[in-house]
Amino acid sequence: MYFLWRHEILVMIGALLLFCQGSVWADGDDLKAQAVAKHNACLGCHAGDKKIVGPSFQDIAKKYAGNPNAKVFLKNKILKGGSGSWGVVPMPANAKMNDADLSILTLWILRGAPTSH
């Protein structure tokens, strides 16, 4: 019985660590995320506060605020592309982005893509 209880606690701690992983925002991450967005041509279709071809990053953040699945959903959408979430214009896939870049970009977008000065 003790082993099962201890095992369950360890599993819960591990799940909590996985859930929280990557959700801490450090100084300079806004600039890193902006660089990732620029390097991957995201800024050709998206802006922080206005619609271009795709929705603004602020509108995306508002749409997915409070959604516990938003990070995974947006990472997948950025990686694989698609259409239908914001209209008929498809978003191209960014299949060559690594997970670190996907994570920082996704968290930045979910924060409303604030700019650092």
Compact overview of the structure:
This protein has helices at residues 2-20, 29-39, 57-64, 70-80, 99-110.
What report would you give on this structure?
- The chain is mainly α and 117 residues long.
- The chain has one domain (26-110): Cytochrome c-like domain (Cytochrome Bc1 Complex, Chain D, domain 2, Orthogonal Bundle).
- Helix content is 52%, strand content 0%.
- It contains 5 helices and no strands.
- The protein is globular, with a radius of gyration of 17 Å.
- Mean pLDDT is 85; it is low at 14-22.
Keyphrases for this structure?
globular, 117 residues, Cytochrome Bc1 Complex, Chain D, domain 2
The name of the CATH superfamily reads Cytochrome c-like domain
Number of helices: 5
Globally, the shape reads globular
Instruction: Provide the succession of SSEs.
Output: HHHHH
What name does CATH use for the topology? Cytochrome Bc1 Complex, Chain D, domain 2
Strand and helix layout:
Layout: H1 2-20, H2 29-39, H3 57-64, H4 70-80, H5 99-110
Helix pairs in contact: 2-5, 4-5
